[in-house]
Design a protein that fits this description.
Blueprint (H helix, E strand, L loop, with lengths): L1 H22 L11 H15 L6 H23 L1 H16 L8
């Protein structure tokens, strides 16, 4: 499960790190982080997709949120028994009575 999360987080961190550094032209002397390359990349993607380049970051953000939801659902499904046990324990702790066992 750690590998799944690492393989999911690494590309997101790399892309969004590049995006915000190049958007603000914080290039540290690297052409890769320049605003000119940022604009060129999104202009090329916009031409390939046939959409306005300014809409691409919003579309990517929506895709990242959706992917996050899918990864969270996958993790919750794999750990559903532990989550159910935790919820039962919380219910017992706060209500003071024993909750019925759901199998």
């Amino acid at each position: 499960m750690r590998y799944l999360i690492a393989l999911w987080v690494a590309p997101l961190a790399l892309f969004w790190g590049w995006y915000f550094l190049s958007l603000n032209d914080i290039n540290f002397g690297y052409v890769m982080l320049s605003r000119q390359l940022h604009d060129l990349v999104f202009q090329l993607y916009g031409e390939m997709l046939g959409i306005d380049p300014a809409t691409i970051p919003g579309l990517l953000a929506k895709a990242c949120v959706f992917d996050t939801f899918l990864v969270g659902c996958l993790i919750a499904f794999r750990r559903r028994k532990a989550i159910a046990a935790w919820l039962r324990a919380q219910r017992e702790h706060y209500s003071g009575e024993r909750a019925p066992r759901i199998t």
